[in-house]
Amino acid sequence: MLNFIEQIHPQLKQKIMKKLVFLIGLVSITMEGTLKAGDTNIASRKSSAFNNATSKRSQETSSEKFGNTLNLAAGIGYYRYVGHSMPVLHVNYELQAARNFTLAPFITFYSYRNYYYWGNPKYPYRNYTYRETVIPIGVKGSYYFDQLLTAGSKWDFYLGASLGFAVRKIVWESGYYGETVIESGSSGLYLDGHLGTEYHLSQKAGLFLDLSSGISTLGFAFHF
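RESULT FIELD:
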């Protein structure tokens, strides 16, 4: 083709060359624009997919309900004057009170065995054993931070507080006739603070850990 162009008049040859350069430039600009448009479309699709996924997670978290949940747990606890840890059983049932907030009537069970040194002229001085059972009953309020933390559907995170009263019963061994009050002046008011998390094994069941100033428990949650 170049040999053919060389045989043409110099002015015509110059015009043809200019047109070829123009066409090559036009093709290059068109291809570059097409590539940029393709990259923009890909980036737009990726951004849209990310925004849709984020929006879906946000909607799932904001619409999640935490009530109608039975929690069964066991762990260790401390009760005021006892001075050592004790095994604990705990049961509560959460009711949806407001968005991200539940109220749960609860009952907890402590029991421990101890001794007290006592005697008088009629009875020998020695260690007399007793068993005390403490049963706190009340209501636990929990606020869930899933939406704030953008937690996935598998996890729940909460802060809570418990308020109630403690029923106490003490049984002494036979032959003890001394003072039966373990801690005089101790009121029955029960207060506790909580920090906890739950991992959902399924839509109907989960495994939770509850840490508090009074008791720390590990248990199962059943969602109805």
